[in-house]
Every structure is written in C-alpha cells, then in structure tokens.
Amino acid sequence: MRTSRKSLGFFGIIVRNFIIFSVVVLVVLIIALIVGLIIVFYDFTNDYFLAVNDYKDYFIEGDYEYFDRERVLGQGGYFAVFDENNNIIYRSEEAETFNLSEEQIELIPKIDTGVTISKTEYVGLDDNKYTIVSYETMDDDSDTIIISNIIADDNFNIVFTDMPNIKKQFSEFDFNLLTGKYKEIYEISKLSYTGIDGQINNAVFCINIEDFNGFFSSPRIIKYIVYAYIIFFIFAVLLFFKSLYKKAKEPLDILNDAIESFAEGKTNKLIEYKGPREFEEICHNFNDMATKLNEAEKKRVAAEQQKQKMLADISHDLKTPITVIKGYAKAITDKKVVDEELGEYLNTIYKKSNSLAELINTFSEYSKLERPDFKIKAVKTNICEFARNYFIEKYNELEFLGFELDIQIPDQGIFCMLDVFEMKRVFENIISNTVKYNEKGTIISFVLEKRKANCVIRIGDNGVGIPDELKKIIFNPFSVGDASRSEVKSSGLGMAIVKKIVDSHMGDIKLLHEQIDGFSVIYEITLPLIEEEK
Known about the structure:
CATH class of the domain at 375-528: Alpha Beta
CATH topology of the domain at 375-528: Heat Shock Protein 90
Number of helices: 13
Strand order of the largest sheet: 2-1-9-8-7
Shape: rod-shaped
C-alpha cells in the first residue's frame, strides 16, 4: 500500500525527536540552573528561623515533642529550653550534655530579629590578625544595612564596638557564641518567648552545618534539584528510546505477522501501515511481492491443471489411432480378414499411421516451442515481399481445393524482424484451419498494413465461423470441440503453436469477435516495425 501523503523518513523522525528531546532537556536544565542560582544567591540556611517560628506556639505551650528537630536543625542538630533561672526544662536528643551559663545564653544571637551575622578576618597595619563581626539587616528596598560592628584581635580582645554593654575581653568559646558559632560544626541561635506560665524562656538551637538537611537548606534543595534533574534526564532518555523503539517495532511486528501468515498459505493478506517512509516502502514492496507470488501461484496451479489436461488429451489423441492400428493388425495376423477386405484394412492402417505421425510431429513442434532455450532466428525482412511470395506458392493449392483469395498487400516495403520459417508456419496453421473446417467457395482474406510503429496482419474467412465458447480458448493447447476428437482431424495445438511463435517475435495475436466486411473469422497479428532501409 502506497500512501498519498509524503511521510517523514525514519532518519527524519530520529532527528525530530532528538531536537524535541534536546530542547526539553535544555529548557528544564535552564530552569533548574535558575532555581539553583536563586537558592545560592538567597541562602535559605540563614532563614531557618522561619521554620522555627512555625513551631513557636508549641514552645509557648510547652509541647516541645512536636518540634520537627531533623527537619529544621538537620541530622545531628539539637536544642534545649532554659527557664528564666537558667535551668534546663527540656533537652532534645543529642543534647544530653548541652549546658550554658546565663551569661553565655545572653551572647547567643536571637533567631527572630531578622539580623544576619558575617565574620571577616584581616591583618592590620601592625601585622596583627583581627576579626570584624558585622550585624546586618535588610531595609524595604532589599539593601543591606549594618546595624553594628565588633572588632576583636587575635586574643579575642574587643578593640572596637558600637554595641552597648559589651565586654572587652572574651574567651574563644564565648566569642564564637557571640557570632552564632558553637564548637566547630554548629550554628547556634535562641528563641526568647513567654510561656503559658508567664515565665521568660530561652530555646537554644544548635544546627549541624556539616550535615544540614533542613527544609530550607540551600545545599539540600540544590541536591534535590540535581537528583530530580538526573531522574528527569534518565526518564527523558528512556522516553526518547521508547519512542524510537515503538516506531521501529510496530512495522517489524506487522511484517513478521504478514510473513507468518504468508508461510501458512495466506498469500492474499496485505499490509496496511502508515509511518516512517522507509517502513512504508518496505511494506509496499512486501505487498507487491505477495501479490506477485500469489499470482504466480495461481498461474502455477493453472499450469499444472493445464499440464494434466494436456497429458490426458495427448493420451486420448494417441490412443485412438493406435487402437485402430492395433485392432486391424491383430485381425490381419489372426487371418480374420478375407482377401477382398485386406487392401481396405491395410489402407486404414496406413492412414491412421500417417495421422499418428502428423500428431506426434505436432506434439514435437509444440514441445520445442515450450522449451526455455527456444529462440527464433529473426532477421530484418520485408514482410510485404515475404507475404507475396508465400501466397504465390500457395495459390495453386488453394485454387485446387476450391478456395478464393482476397489479398491486400501494399507495394511499399514494411520491415520487421522475422524468422521466416516460423512465420510461414503461422500462416500455414491459420489457413489450414480455414481449409479444414470450411466448404469450397470460402473466401480467404489477407490484409497487411502499417499502423503507427507496428505492422498489422489480418487473416480471415467468410466461412462457418467459430463457436463462441471456443473463441475464448482458441489459443490454448488442445482447444478443439468434442466432435473433432471422434476422428483425428486436429490435435488442438495449431493455434497454440501460432501464439507461441507470434509471442516469440514480441508480437500479439487475437481473434476479433466482431465481423468486418462480411468475414466471420478474423485473426489480427501485430508485429513491431524496424526502420526501413534508406
């Protein structure tokens, strides 16, 4: 089946799908990068106080077990709640040994002030190492505002500060608390609130910065974005290959089913498929092959049936004269024939022998034409001159038999490639049939003319004609009526031989069904022309 639309080729489908795949993957990658950049630009780690504030009411009511420690503080993070007398009223897991003095708790930055702390180290003009701790916030225009600064030397002595009530000397541990650091791997902050009992409590949170996977952690979110993109990429690749696999597998399955059906003898099953152009062409070619093989199988069956019929006809045609000869010879051998009838018996045997020899010669000629290696010996011939010479030789015989001739051959030469011996047999077989089946006085017509690139020959007669049922099979082997088989008048191979010879000349022969100029039988032979000699 050939489709009228112009289908996209399989390579074109691969290119198209790859472009779509690449564009989608690139767009998703760009979106992921933008989200990642936003997360990196605005560090959500410092905004974990938003999550803490979500649980503030639980702290006020004293329901500390509802606080999602790992979600907010990360794995390994912990917290403890101190009352206004600095007694610990609650410890989370991991906080069994956690303890701070009241003064140390005061140094810890508050989580709900919106203040971020940055620490910068530098070497002064005196070659000593200094640390600047800046407390910053954002105004309504998202500009950074420095609230206050602390400058400490390498021994944690405060050399400058604009914060009131600040000590001038710190230990390293206390100085880290002041900057929101606890030990080496924790950030520390506090939430001050008034509980339902009216006391002021401080919840101190230690966040594990090495393994922080809190909900608002930028490393965690970026990691999830990377994981999600990898999963999406793998899914997109699988979808891409699945699409290609489906495009290739569908026509292959259809072809496989068709081949299996063909192997089971269902040779008339054709494929209906629309898809990539290459597969459509393959399916179309398979349909062509299946159709041709189906037709070839029908011809083979018909040829086998024809062969069986031919063998039966040959057997019948040979059996009749042989039976007569055998019977007459047996009668003579057994001396059952009187002397007066002996001559008649011998004459019958002679006639039947001649008929049998003629029949065998005809079979031999037809068999020779059927051989694959049969070839005519065609030469460039003026068919007008050939036809005139034939009828000059045939004229006396036909006149003696009582048949008239109506010959129309142009004077100008018409040239074809002819095997004159075989073409003479064509004329002989057609005219012999006319003589055999018609009475004296029948007119035999022969018309030769040039028609475009062909030579057209019409041989006919105005005799009794041919039965309609015989006209359809006139060129098939053994095409004779049943009455003709009572005596050996015809082998039924004459017109089959004629068609074989004409076909071998790359020509065509047909029996016209309509009468022309009163002629009841007209055979029309068409032969290809060659250029005339100049």
